[in-house]
Amino acid sequence: MSSAIGNCVLRDWFGPMAHRAGAGVHPFSGPGRALFELADGHDRSIGDLTYAVRWVLEDLTSDQPMLLVVDDLQWADTASVESLDLLATALQQLPCLVVFTVRSGEPVASSESLNRLLAASTVLSPAPLSREAVAEQVRAVRPRAGDAEIDAVHRNSGGVPFFVNELISDTNGTPDAVVGSITGRLSRLNPTATITARAVCLLGSQASVGLVAALTGHPLASVADDISTLVAAQILTPNGGHLRATHPLIAAAVLAPMTAHESSELHHRAAQVLKGRGAARSVIATHLLHTLPGADADIRERLREQGELSLTQGALEQASGFLSRALAEGPITSDDVDLMSATARALAGQRLLDEALAMWERATDLADDDITRDRLRAEAGDALMVAGRHLDAQDALGTGRDPDSGRQRLFARMVLAGLLNGVSLDYLRTQVSEVLAKPPLGETQEERLSLAAASVVLTFECQDGERARDLAIRAIGNGAMLQDESAEGTMLYLATSVLHWMSAFSEGDAILTSAIDDAASRNASMTLATASLCRGNIRMHMGMISEAIVDLEAALAQRTHGWNAFMAPLLAALVECRIARGELDRVADHRDELEELTHAPGLTGAFATYALADLAAAHAEHEQAAHLYAQVGRLVDGRMDNPAILPWRAGEALSRIRMGQPREAVNLARENAARARAFGGPYAVAQALRTLAAVDATGDRVGMLREALAALQQTQAPRLEAQVATDLAGMLLLTQGMGDTREPVVLLRRAESYAAFQELRPLSDRVHRILERIGEPVKRSTTENLTSLTASERRVADLAASGLSNRQIAQQLFVTVKAVEWHLSNVYRKLGIRSRTRLPGLLNVPSPRGSLSQRAV
């Protein structure tokens, strides 16, 4: 539509028809000839033309209704708008519908005629497209488009049809068609409108009339006029006391035509204006981020400050942007090592590990002292371990043969690298011996790292668990270690692992909960994963199986963000939890990954193999289980052979006894018990005694189980306590007969209550079998009761709970009323209820209206 052509609307509507019909041919004869002449390039008066339109339309609509469409009427010439204004009343008397679109805020040839036309019309303002409508449009072009792509188009377009179509066809940045459209609209406004629009869009939420005037250098009155025009054109919109673009795509389109130099200059001026007005430092830094690099010390400092703040807040992408831009502001020297370190950590957190390692390497080359170089190597080693690249981490950390006590940051991480990779710890023993000979007080970070590393090595060697526990507690220092390195600190997790292995569960759980809170407050997903894994492991042994699964699944979810640090221990813990709940099908998906991890050395391979052994044992594949447990023993031999970490001998002993190999089973169980006693962790001791009682028919089995229960009084481990109590109850009944069952019943009731609370079906089933054998009633949980219903019983129960009578149920299921009554009696017995009134609550079905008792027949 063009305002340069007179009567353009009538020419577009009737010109082609007139030429096809020919001169003087009906309906373009008589009064209608005026339209033929107009199409042929001859001007006619507005009166002749409006009469001709009515003449032609009366003829054309005599056979069928007509639809006439005008797009962007605001761009039409004056004669066209005036003609439509004059025709409005006449057209309403014909079976003819005129549809036209008008964009507000644009210059109009005849505003008076357009306003009358609008007043005579039905005005429709379409709402934005729904997500479903956007999905339909996206999939019409890309049938395999996923929900994420559709959500992005819907979010970025705001449901505006034009934006939707352009985002679908142009997926790289701001679509060219949108830029062209907005640029064209701005060009039709007054000359300074583009400058004002750019200033508003660049300032974002800070934009106000006064600030825009200061940024553009234009008079306040001129800027106010521009803003009024831009608001009328729906390019800008008021936002409280500020201004903003009507849509984010419009803001991007307004700024897109600017060159890099123009954009940089405007952002730099904005930073200066905002600085003079006392704006927040973060706002100023955001503008400086978009300037071209120079050599301004103040700009570098502001960018560094904002980058480090973003890093502590977990905004890693923002952090790396600010920090990288800060590095670009001037030459890099040895004074910039800390800035480079922060940049590397931000990059590593975004899974840009190769870029981060390159940055750490450059920083290490520039560092002028060993302490700084060791810190940088430690950071790189941590990042590699989090990514699961354990061998690379060991290479990055070095050999650790330097006895300098000031290098404990590296020493601490070497312990973990050795643990993960199965390297002998001989080369660390010299430093450990020095620490043990004269333990530091733990008043400094380096001393705390030394204490933590020594506690771990003692635990690996299955020596003096009480001393290892004491060293770990001193290392943690009432949370001082968490403050030293935040929740990223590698040794924090090793120290809490020592507490875990020594059954100091409450202490470990408390510090790990603080670490999780710290990580969550900073949005540090990698750290959150490691802390959740460690707490999940502790809670599993604390008997908090449901809570442990929540932690472990939370850690597993972070692998999508690049966390692969301790996948084998994580999957092993999940396997143990799922086995405890009888949910073997829930871990089947992890079997292939575990089998792949068994090829890794050290801790990784050992934990993966142990998990597969547990799965084999749970499936009664005893020969395979025994083989896998023995393989775990070979992997940990001489490195970390401690039953508090991986009780492989206990697992193999139980498999051997089930294979009919009692001698081998007893030998394994006795050695396992001896090593557990040597280390001293109450959980490991109780677990070892339980195993020995299960396989050694010549020993004092009852005495061993009582000793195991006594050991567990020193810690909090209700699951193992319930298992031992169940074993003891069964052993008492076996050895003492059925005469006095009071103690077995007490033991079983305690185990029954715990198993029901944590929904541990295997343990619960075992307890119930023993109770039923001695004639004691069984207290089943609601979940157990519901799963005990047959399919037919559950169907009948659901229908009864919904309010149907017995007769109605029988009719719906095509059975007799007697059959319904029989099923319901079984349902009542299994659920422990006396009437159908309790069914809605138990089955989670909304209670039917009216009295069930009145409706039942």
Automatic annotation (TrEMBL):
GO molecular function: adenylate cyclase activity; ATP binding; DNA binding
Any single Gene Ontology cellular-component annotation: cytoplasm
A Pfam family this chain is assigned to: GerE
Residue span, HTH luxR-type domain: 782-847
Gene Ontology biological-process annotations: regulation of DNA-templated transcription
Keywords associated with the record: ATP-binding, Nucleotide-binding
SMART domains from the UniProt entry: HTH_LUXR
Name listed for the protein in its UniProt record: HTH luxR-type domain-containing protein
Organism in which the protein naturally occurs: metagenome
High-level lineage: unclassified sequences, metagenomes
